[in-house]
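Record type: monomer structure entry
Structure origin: computed from sequence
Chain ID: A
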Amino acid sequence: MYLLPGQETVPFHFVWISLALVYGFTTWRTSWMVIALVAVVLTTGPVLVHHVAIGVIRWEECTEEPLMAAIFGVMVWHVHRRQLLLREVQRISELERRRYEMQQLFVRLASHELRTPITVARGYTELVRAVHQDPATVEDTEIVLEELDKVSRITHRLVTLIQVDQPHPLSPVDVDAELLRIVRRWQPTAERDWVSRSEIGYAQLNPERFEAALDCLLENAVKFTEPGDRIEVTGRRDHDEWTVRVRDTGSGISHQTVYQLLTGPPGQGTSTGTGLGLAIVRAVIESLGGRITLSGEPGKATTVTLRVPQPVRVTPEIGPAVPVGAEVVPLAGV
């Protein structure tokens, strides 16, 4: 700059650009940045003043010095904000990694350390019940067994809810046959009027997750119905989606509970239960891009509808033809 009076613009801006590039690719402490800025200003500023003094440039051109210093300050501010954001992203990423590790640890604990004591306690309770046949012991052990079953179901649902968020493979599944199999499996567990009709055919889903979701719905249907009530599972396919509907004629559900279940966070407890079952259903269906609707009135039927957008029938390359209208006969007729 000093040796090029009147032509100092290029080296002047080259110095500031070099300073900006060096700072942008490295991490400086604030004190180092201030020292570098002062050094550049003290180096280039006197040269410009000297050229003004000898009449080569005008005083107005000296304003580039504070302007370039201000631009550099703004750039430093933006780089500092970027570094803070990068550190925050790294912190969040580390928290997510730890959360995933804790989930995996919980799954292992719930799968073994929790289920094993429940199984052992249930075995000893059944042993006491078999040895002592007096009515008081039978009644007490029955309560213990019911509570152990409740803890076992909650543990299973917690594990399922955590595993639902993990990636799982999808495959063409005969939904009609799957619904038929699931309902037949539930028939011996409760004296209800079981009915299943489906015209879906094949759909792309994970059969284990789908069965877990249906089990949650059917368990709730059994819980809120009495012997002789109807539990109906129907499936249909429209031009752009397929639908599974679970309807029971039990105690029904209030509008307030419907609102809480559909608008509240997943797993929020209600007056009717823990909310884990519906959380599992929502997670499974939403992973397929679908949605869940719930309707009913106290003392009347409750209906849960699962809608999944799949406009094209998915049929395996080798396999049976798509069955239509599969129906489960009442339990008394089996």
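Annotation 1: The longest helix spans residues 64-131.
Annotation 2: Residues 17 and 72 are 9 Å apart (CA to CA).
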